Amino acid sequence: MSPAVLGLHIGGSKTRAVRAGLDTSGNHDGEDGGAVEITEARANLSSVGHQGADAVLRRIAAAVGPGISAVCMGAAGADTPASRAVLTALLTEHFPGAVIDVVHDTRIVLAAADLDAGAVVVAGTGSVAWGRSRDGREARAGGYGYLLGDEGGGYSVVRDSVREALREYYAGLEPGPLVKAIMAATASADALQLMDFFYARPEPDHWAGLAPLVLDLAADGDPAAVRIQAEAAHSLATLARQVLGELGLDLPLVMAGALLVNQPQLAGAVARKVALDDPSGIRILDEAPVHGAVKLARRLIQS
Fold first, then answer.
1. Cα–Cα distance list, 252 to 114, 120, 265, 274 (Å)
2. I need a labelling partner for 193 at 20 to 30 A (CA). Which of 6, 42, 84, 284 fits?
3. pLDDT value at residue 203
4. CATH 3.30.420.40 applies to domain 117-286
5. What was the pLDDT predicted at 149?
6. What string of H, E and C letters represents the secondary structure of 187-240?
7. This prediction's pTM
């Protein structure tokens, strides 16, 4: 098998891996004659721990095979030197001899968009914004995890829906369309049982999976869902504006993550809040972030 690089994206709910050629010819697939793409379970250290992450990476290493020259991992939650050191050690074990780099997943979004300077706002299970200026300065906002932040992400959207269910219940109101939909999706008899379920299984990715249901209802005009979507858009726009305010309002902004990529109404609301007068500098990422990790992996051996 020809020498190759490996890009990894460890998100809040799944892991994606792409083995691709060294790209000396400029083709996307490089010398392999076609990239190898794998989707695996989540490998986020804060969610599955050292052993869980190790198991996922072991399966990926077996699937992609030998000959990996460089690995770039973009990982949600790779915020501290300690977490990056753990992931680097695991990658070194599974890909011996490869050049390794572990970065926060916002960096691979910028690379996937073919930008060296710009800002990104990501809304998936959680939320974060990050950017790099043309002179190399960096800024970040959010991305603190579901206990401390992640406003506007999928978990936050569904948590607000559970709060709406409790508000209606204690106000003596009949459940509205949003609450009925959430209760049906969770097989909850009422808002109190929904709350019990929420505390019994607090994993963010479990609840974030219901966010599209909420946003689809917002697109249909349900008042409660519209309010929750508006709050999410405000939170995401605030993150983006903070980064752009520090680095330069003229920088391009890339929106990524499942909620912004797959929910055009939410993405449009965020864009309008960030740049009402001229949203032309804002775009939605049209390539999976993992391909940004592939591009950064190639730079490790081309530099």
1. 11, 8, 20, 11
2. 42
3. 86
4. yes
5. 86
6. CCCCHHHHHHHHHHCCCHHHHHCCHHHHHHHHHCCCHHHHHHHHHHHHHHHHHH
7. 0.86
